[in-house]
Each structure stands twice: as C-alpha cells, then as structure tokens.
Write a sequence for this structure.
C-alpha cells in the first residue's frame, strides 16, 4: 500500500469547492472505488503508437500493476510533455494533461503542491525531460515534490522522425548528424543523483517483472521518484538495448540491483562490483576478490555518492548497466512542507480578510 | 474634488487650484503659510535611503489626511558607484488638500543629498522653487565625480532658486555623537534627519515614523534609537534654525467617510488576489519567478499563508506559469506574476491555458522594453504582446488597472472573468502603478463581488455516449458564457484528459477534423468576445456633455490624462475622457461612442498600440500621442496636446466668454 494521504485538505476553508465537488461525486457514485482491474484503467481511445513500440509494453505493465496500489483512478493524475511517450495520458482512465514540450514536471509540481491528496505521475521522454525540459526536471528532483516521473529513454527523437537525442551515443548517425553525433550524452541516472533525487531507478520495457518491481517502489516512495525506462523505438532506433535484452549477452552486461544483496552478476556470477582506490566502484572478477570486498547494495545510503558511482559503471554502449533501484531515501517532501507552513500560519493567525485589508497605518474620515 | 479657481493652461504644475501665498520670510518669528498642494522630490545616492524616506513621508502625509500620489524613481543597479549620476535615486510626492490624480509634473521643493542628485534633478525644478542641499557632500571629490568644475553652492549658478544649503551630514553626526555608533553607521541616519526637517516644515505627524523605526530595527535597538534621535534632531533643527523661517500647512483633503490607508499598486494587487481567493472559495496558488518590478507581489503574497495562499518561487518564468496552470487544473485559482520579458517566456504556456480553457491570472507589471530594457522604469509597451504574443489564434481577455488602489479591484475583476469563462486573463499593471502609492478607502469585505457562483465544479456526468451511457464531456459548454465544464481531479467518474492538441467539440477527444478545428477556433474567440456582455457600456467622463474631442487611454495614464482634462475644463473648454478597464474585449458600444467625437486622442507610453487596435477595430482616425521615456506623462504637456486638438477641430471652441459675440458655447 502507498502512504498517500487520501484526505482532501480543506485548505483552511470549510466547504471549499474542491472538497465539496469530490464529496458530491462520491455521494453520487458510491464510495471511492479502489479494487480496480487493469481494464478499468483503459480508455476508449485508440492507442496510436507504432506497432511494436516499447510504449505498448510499458502501458500494459502500468495498467496491470497500478490497481495493486489501492488508489482510486480519479485520484490519479498523469501529466506529460510532448513526444511519443507523452501520449500516455490519453490511454489511461485517470485524470490527465498532455501539456507542452519539457514542462510536465513544472505543471505537475503546481498540481502536487496544491493537492497533496492526489497521486501525481509524470510521463516523459529523453528529449522532453533532458533537452528542452532539463531545467524543470532537476528542480523537481531537488525539491522532492511528491510525484513519480517515468522517463522513457529510447535514445532518439521519435515524434520528429529520428534526430539524435541527449542520450544518444557519440558518433550516432541520424538525419541531423549524417557524420555522427558529436554531443556527449547525459546519463539520466547520474543527472538525477546529481540533483540529489531521493528515488532513482532504472528498468527495461520488456522486463515486465523488473519494471513492475521498480515502478511499485517508485509509486510508494514519498517524494520525487525518477524511473528511467529503456524503451525500444523500433522505427528510428531499433535494437538500441539489444545488448541488455538478448538472453546471450543480457546477463553478462546487466547488473541487477537488489537491496541487501552482493553485487554479483554475469553468467555463473563471474563478475562483481568492488570499491576502487578513489572511492568509486569498479568491476572485478568474482574469483579474484575476497567475498567481503564485494559491495552489498544499499539503496538507502544518505550520501548519493555510492549510487552515483553505480551509475558511472556503465558506458555509452550499455556494458555494465545496473538495473533496479539505485537510491531510495526519505526526506521531507515539498508539498508536505508547504502544507505544514500553511498549518502553522493558521495556528499563529486568523484568516481575517477585513483585518488584512485595513492593516498597517490607517486613518478614518468621519461623515 | 473641491471647487477651485481655474489655473492657467501650461502652468508649470498640474492641478494648481489656489495661489500659494508665500509669506515674506525673515525674522525669527516663524510664520505658517497655508498651501493647497506641494510636490516634494527627494533625491540622493542609492545608498542614502531616499525610497525609505519618501515612503515614511508618504505614510505621515497619508495619516494626516492629505490626498497624495507618489513617483519612486530608482536605477536598475542595486548600488551604482557612490556619488555618481547613475546611482541617483529619487522619490517624488504630491500631496494636497483636495483630490489629486498625479505625482506632479515638477517638484516645488527639491532635496538633493549630493552633487549627483542636484545635477540630475535640478532641471526639473522650476525657477524660484525651494532647493535644500546637503552642503557637507559638496566636496571637491564629489563635485569632480559628476563634472562640476566649481561648487554650484558658491559659483552663483543656483541664484534662480531659493537655495538653502544645510549641513545635513555633520548635523546628523553631531546629533549622534553619544550614540556609540561609528561615523559610517551614524552617517546613514542623515535621511532620518532630513525626514525630521521636512516633517517640521510641513507639519507632519511624527508618531508613526517613531513607531515604524522601533518596529523595523527591533533586533537592533541601538540603530532604532539612533534613527529616532536623528529624526527628532532634524525636526528640532527646523524649529530653531534661522534658515527656515516659514513652515507650511496643507489641510487634510475632503474625502468620503471611511477608513483609509496608503497603498501601492503591488500591495493592492496582492490583496485583491487574496480577496479573490476568499470570495470564490478557491485556494490561491502563485507560481512566480523574481523579476522587477513584479517581485513585491510574490513577497506580499508569501506572507498570507493563513488565507490558504500557496506561493511557489519557481526555477524560471516558464515553471512559474506551468505550476500555476497545474494548480488550476487541480481546482485552485492559479496566478503568475511577471514583467514583459517573463510574459515572452510564458507565451507557450498561456497558449496551453487557452487550449485547456482553465482559469489563470497572468499579471504583467510592465517595464521599459524591448529585451531587458529599463527594468525599473515604466512603460505600456506590452499591450500587443498581451493581445497577440502567442502562436495560433489564442485570444484572451486583457484588463488594466488605472491607479495604485484600483489594482485591488482589477485583480478581483480578472478573477471573475477567469473563473466565469474558464480562461487565462492578462492583467496589465506597470512600474508606475506598482511602486506608486495613494490613499485607498478600505472596502467592506461583504461589499466585494461574490465569486462563488463563477466556480461551479462539475460533480456528475453532463452528457451521454451514443448508447446512452452517462459520460462527462469536458468541452461541453455553458450556452450563455461558452465556458467549458470544469471537473477537478478526485471527482469520481469524471476522469478526463486535456492538453494542447485540438479537442473535439464536446467530448474533448483529440481531433484533427478540419471542420472541428475551424469551429473550435471560432468558439474560443466567441467565448472571449462574449465577455463584453458582462462588462457594461463605455464609461465616458464629460461633465459638460458637449465635448467634440475625446481622450482615450488605458492603465496608469489615467492620472495624467485626468489632470490634463481638468486643466482643459478649467480653461472653459470641454473634453471627454474615456479610460478603458477592459481592452479585450472592448465594451460593446465603444465603436459607437468614439464615432460621436470629431477627434479622438490616445495618449500612451508606447508607440501607439491601443491606437492601432482602435483604428483596426473601429475604423476611427485616432490621433496617437506617445511617450516612451520610462516616465509618466506630464499633465501640462497632455493638456497642450488636447488644447491644440480642440482649437484645430472647431473655430468656435475657444474658451467660453471670449467668443466675439459673447455667446456661451
């Protein structure tokens, strides 16, 4: 179960229209319905992603696991930006806003900060959140507003038909880079940890179990959660994650992150993660190091340096890619602190508008 | 307004309504002269505290009961090098025993705290005006900084004015000799010494300033004590010195009964937003990024959490409006405050608000442009940006306050339109309104508009699918206002998706249908046009009822235009004044009204933006009169423009009583 505060705040104004509307709808349709099925979250809109797009898999995974959170669908809001992934809200029978390029975290911040009773989600892509919307993403993360950000990373611009993105590898040949991209890419996990994000995870679109597991933890986290989802664009960047998906190579190059377990991976657990001389991490052969030197994964470390070091293990070609939850720490949420300040103000003073208008130095003119 | 003797056109100051009897000076017996109005300008270095001094003098004047109007004028640099021309900061205050409309065209009294302040302000002081200077600051070094070869205090160049050199700095230091403060710290109190002197000279009440200083420096009691000592020393100096033989009395202005306070435009706007929240029942959410001259609204609103007001200082202008729109989607009254360059950044989100048809207040406190322009100076050059600065056909209502106090009512009116019609509303204030101040009659809360009826959240289905299943259609409209249905997240059964893509009429699904797009574009326009039905006819001020020339304006030019019209009427001519609150849509009858006049003059602090709209919309040959100096119009200059128009329009439009046949017009 989530720790969502399902009480609709009256914001100090008894009978405020928001609470009244919510109450009236509950009276009309019965109690809030939280025992949902996946089909309850589908809309009547035709899904219009390209056949074979990784977005379908993610949509199905989300629709299947969301009911288990026990949140009524009217209490969920999905805000998206622009791009293929940002069509997501149209296919979810929740409240939703398909906004403008890069701005979804900002819009969701206003919604989540003013309505702590809602479960707010952002669906975005690598172009949307890391290029045009990079600023909003890092500020949402540092503030720790209670929301879950799903960053679909396909390492390409799909909706504008195939230009390189801020996560494309150097040398990538696209329509706008016929001689290869010369931009150094972002590592979204490193970026989020640099902004001191309290929850950072990564999952693969095709790995239903892994994806669901990370999404659940992200949804249950209080504060901003960022989940990078590797998503295949079969039209403009097909096979981008094949190294990790292929059963023959996947286990060799993926590092599954399980809290409390040693970071051992690869066929027969032949590889592992140990500390390097400079306080970072490096890959070693398991049989060449002492068992106690192998790092035990701990996502709850206060200092983000460890999670950051984990994120730096992987290279642009995806070898040694950790998958799972990098970091999950508790810090006060922005919306929680904002509500608290309002509560404190209400204890310290009274909402006397007449007193406010006539405040300061006044003088009276007699009739 | 009290009846008064008509002043001559082109008098150096506006709104002169009686002769100021200057008593003969000389002799130790101090005389008191009654004046009906005074314009004082305080000028000094940015570090001299001129804005604070001006604000205190304003508060004293307000609590005394004079009508008043202020014009703060300061550089964009926080602290330009001390003693230089770019560092000069000034504060002008006009106060009177009658109803006034402007901070005054020119000062009667100039207080110059250093040579730079003298140099940059002297040309505004009419000959014979009273000039008080801090003689201590006229050192060779300070004189050289601003290019004075000789001291104007000694070379006779100030003979045309009543110049009174006063050693303000050294007298302040003397007064604070026992305060325990160092020289530098003690010197800082010279503005309070000056305030004390002026308070004596104009019979201002002093208790408020003492209380203010105690409050302001409650954590530094020694500083509070020093400032109060300097303030009292200045007052006592006035009483005992031979340098000032005369003090002046300006009686309180007759005002309607009620409780008054002094208020700036940004304060009034902030209070209007709080009031709009309470009167609609909606929580206020302000998303803003600091920008001059709008930041004070963010500062003020962040103090009012007790009213459920949430303030969010965003990472940029775009996030400020984005968060406000997100909050509106959640059922709050979203507000974003900014100035011109910020509006440019917000344009795309304003377009989204137009498309999603959510209520949102966008407050543009205009400043000089383009680009960074003149951040601390006033201008009205964002009108066309407000009207058209978006991609696509994206109409939105535009309204403007006319005075600092009027910002309160304008904010409530903006909220009324935003909520009733589910639309972003642009409110155009400006730097002059934002920082200027005037007495404001504190309204009775119960008399404010009740906005609860404008909210009306949907609580159940409002349509049915083809098979009869009840459904919620977010773009189902109210037949009268064309406002769409507004359901807030959390409302069971009404889940829906909105966004920037074109919507199908009614159900709001994505639609690329050509006919639907054409229909929706026209519907959004019709919704905004339809607001005219709720705003009443054009308000024309033409007391004589026979004017052939009308002056039309909007925003902060109300005061200077109004004062100019008074001059015209006082000279026996007639003129009509039309001042627009609503610029989009215009009042329904505006075209008809303008067509009645032989000549329509439109003064604006831009290059003719309203004139362009009026010409385009009504085919009226508007005479545009413009000024983009970063300063408000002078009413005397406007009066001359109006007089020329009247005199050239009609041969018999000369002042009454002077026509050859003696007939009254």
């Amino acid at each position: 179960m989530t720790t969502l505060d399902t009480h609709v705040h009256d914001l100090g104004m008894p009978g405020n229209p928001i609470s009244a509307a919510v109450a009236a709808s509950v009276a009309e349709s019965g109690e809030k319905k939280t025992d949902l099925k996946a089909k309850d979250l589908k809309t009547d809109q035709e899904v219009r992603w390209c056949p074979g797009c990784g977005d379908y898999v993610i949509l199905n995974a989300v629709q299947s696991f969301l009911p288990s959170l026990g949140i009524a669908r009217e209490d969920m809001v999905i805000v998206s930006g622009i791009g293929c992934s940002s069509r997501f809200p149209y296919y979810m029978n929740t409240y939703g806003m398909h906004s403008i390029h890069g701005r979804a975290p900002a819009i969701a911040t206003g919604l989540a900060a003013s309505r702590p009773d809602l479960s707010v989600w952002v669906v975005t892509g690598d172009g949307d959140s890391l290029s045009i919307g990079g600023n909003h993403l890092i500020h949402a993360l540092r503030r720790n507003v209670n929301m879950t950000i799903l960053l679909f990373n396909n390492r390409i611009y799909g909706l504008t038909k195939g230009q390189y993105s801020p996560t494309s590898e150097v040398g990538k040949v696209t329509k706008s880079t016929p001689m290869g991209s010369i931009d150094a890419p972002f590592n979204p996990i490193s970026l989020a940890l640099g902004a001191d994000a309290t929850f950072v995870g990564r999952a693969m679109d095709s790995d239903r179990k892994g994806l669901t597991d990370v999404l659940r933890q992200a949804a249950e986290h209080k504060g901003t959660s960022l989940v990078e989802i590797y998503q295949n664009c079969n039209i403009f960047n097909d096979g981008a994650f094949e190294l990790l998906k292929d059963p023959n190579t996947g286990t060799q190059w993926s590092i599954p992150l399980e809290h409390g377990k040693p970071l051992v991976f690869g066929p027969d657990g032949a590889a592992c993660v140990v500390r390097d001389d400079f306080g970072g991490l490096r890959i070693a052969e398991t049989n060449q190091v002492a068992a106690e030197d192998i790092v035990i994964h701990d996502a709850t470390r206060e200092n983000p340096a460890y999670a950051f070091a984990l994120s730096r293990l992987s290279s642009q070609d995806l070898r040694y890619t950790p998958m799972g939850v990098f970091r999950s720490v508790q810090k006060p949420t922005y919306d929680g602190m904002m509500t608290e300040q309002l509560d404190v103000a209400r204890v310290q003073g009274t909402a006397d508008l007449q007193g406010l208008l006539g405040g300061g130095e006044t003088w009276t003119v007699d009739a | 307004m009290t009846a008064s003797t008509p002043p001559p056109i082109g008098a150096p100051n506006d709104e002169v309504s009686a002769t100021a009897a200057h008593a003969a000076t000389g002799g130790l017996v101090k005389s008191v002269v009654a004046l009906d109005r005074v314009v004082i300008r305080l000028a000094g270095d940015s570090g001299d505290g001129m804005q604070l001094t001006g604000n205190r003098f304003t508060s004293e004047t307000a609590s005394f009961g004079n009508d008043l109007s202020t014009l703060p004028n300061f550089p964009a640099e926080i602290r330009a090098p001390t003693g230089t021309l770019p560092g000069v900061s000034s504060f002008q205050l006009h106060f009177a025993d009658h109803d006034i409309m402007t901070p005054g065209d020119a000062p009667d009294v100039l207080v110059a705290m250093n040579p730079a302040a003298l140099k940059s302000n002297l040309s505004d002081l009419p000959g014979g005006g009273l000039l008080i200077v801090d003689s201590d600051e006229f050192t060779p070094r300070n004189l050289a900084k601003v290019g004075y070869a000789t001291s104007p205090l000694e070379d006779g160049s100030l003979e045309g004015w009543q110049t009174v050199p006063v050693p303000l700095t050294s007298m302040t230091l003397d007064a604070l000799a026992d305060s325990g403060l160092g020289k530098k710290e003690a010197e800082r109190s010279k503005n309070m010494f000056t305030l004390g002197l002026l308070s004596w000279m104009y019979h201002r009440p002093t208790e408020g300033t003492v209380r203010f200083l105690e409050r302001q420096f409650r954590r530094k009691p020694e500083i509070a004590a020093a400032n109060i000592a300097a303030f009292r020393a200045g007052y006592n100096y006035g009483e005992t010195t031979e340098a000032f033989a005369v003090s002046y009395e300006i009686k309180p202005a007759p005002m309607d009964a009620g409780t008054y306070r002094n208020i700036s435009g940004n304060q009034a706007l902030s209070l209007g937003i709080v009031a709009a929240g309470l009167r609609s029942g909606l929580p206020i959410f302000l998303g803003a990024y600091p920008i001059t001259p709008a930041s004070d609204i963010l500062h003020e609103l962040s103090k009012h959490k007790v009213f459920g007001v949430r303030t969010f200082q965003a990472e940029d202008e775009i996030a400020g409006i984005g968060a406000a729109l997100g909050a509106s989607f959640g059922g709050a009254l979203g507000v974003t405050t900014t100035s011109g360059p910020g509006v440019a950044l917000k344009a795309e989100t304003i377009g989204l608000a137009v498309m999603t048809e959510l209520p949102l207040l966008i407050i543009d406190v205009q400043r000089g442009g383009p680009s960074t322009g003149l951040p601390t100076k006033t201008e009205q050059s964002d009108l066309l940006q407000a009207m058209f600065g978006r991609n696509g056909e994206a109409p939105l209502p535009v309204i403007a306050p006319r005075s600092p106090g009027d910002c309160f009512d304008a904010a409530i009116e903006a909220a009324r339109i935003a909520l009733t019609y589910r639309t972003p509303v642009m409110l155009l204030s400006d730097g002059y309104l934002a920082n200027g101040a005037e007495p404001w009659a504190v309204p009775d809360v119960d008399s404010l508009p009740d906005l609860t009826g404008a909210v009306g959240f949907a609580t159940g289905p409002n349509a049915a699918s083809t098979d009869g299943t009840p459904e919620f259609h977010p773009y189902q409209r109210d037949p009268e206002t064309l406002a769409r249905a507004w359901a807030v997240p959390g409302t069971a059964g009404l889940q829906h998706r909105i966004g920037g893509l074109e919507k199908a009429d009614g159900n709001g699904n994505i639609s690329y249908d050509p006919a639907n797009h054409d229909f929706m574009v026209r519907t959004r326009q019709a919704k905004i046009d339809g607001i005219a039905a709720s705003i009443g006819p054009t308000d024309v001020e033409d007391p004589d009822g026979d004017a052939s020339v009308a002056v039309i304006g909007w925003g902060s030019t109300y005061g200077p235009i109004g004062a100019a019209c008074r001059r015209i009427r006082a000279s026996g001519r007639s003129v009509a004044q039309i001042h627009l609150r609503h610029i989009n849509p215009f009042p329904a009858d505006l075209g008809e009204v303008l067509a009645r006049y032989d000549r329509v003059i439109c003064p604006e602090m831009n290059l003719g933006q309203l004139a362009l709209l009026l010409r385009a919309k009504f085919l009226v040959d508007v005479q545009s009169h413009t000024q983009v100096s970063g300063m408000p119009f002078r009413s005397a200059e406007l009066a001359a423009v109006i007089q020329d128009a009247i005199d050239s329009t009609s041969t018999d439009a000369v002042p009454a009583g002077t026509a050859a046949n003696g007939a009254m017009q």
Observations:
- Chain A touches chain B through 80 residues (CB under 8 Å).
- DSSP finds twelve helices and twelve strands in chain A.
